[in-house]
Amino acid sequence: MKPPPPPGPPDIGDLRELVEQWARFTADLAENGYSFDLDNWLNDVDVRELVLEALPMFGREEMGELGLALEQADRTFMAATRAFRKCVWGTATAARERWTPEKNWWYFRTPHRSNGPLEDELGRIR
Questions:
Q1: Considering the domain boundaries, does residue 30 fall inside one?
Q2: Residue-number span of the structural domain to which 40 is assigned
Q3: Domain annotation covers residue 3
Q4: Per-residue model confidence (pLDDT) at position 2
Q5: Which pLDDT does position 7 carry in this prediction?
Q6: Residues of the chain below pLDDT 50
Q7: What CA–CA distance (Å, rounded) separates 66 from 119?
Q8: Contact 110, 81 (CB under 8 A)
Q9: How many independent structural domains does the chain possess?
């Protein structure tokens, strides 16, 4: 069996879609707070990790206004969240992935306006 072909060049459209998804999430979070559970929160903040992983593949010229949109979404997220004492994925995952509050700050924040079930789940993170 023949190995699959190597991946093609990165597509700025894929990054644009991720940034737009992040921006929609942060705007909704700022406006409405968060009404879902921890699994949903993890999925939502994982989008920002995917953005981080994709950024080195694109230059400033390719990013253009996309970079500004990302900065605005990040500011919105910071304003709508509070620092959390540990990684929302847990300390073992943070150590394995080498996530830090400085580099992967989205994993170390939780919503200002939340809900009881999410807060309960956050309280059980180890």
A1: yes
A2: 12-123
A3: no
A4: 75
A5: 58
A6: none
A7: 33
A8: yes
A9: 1
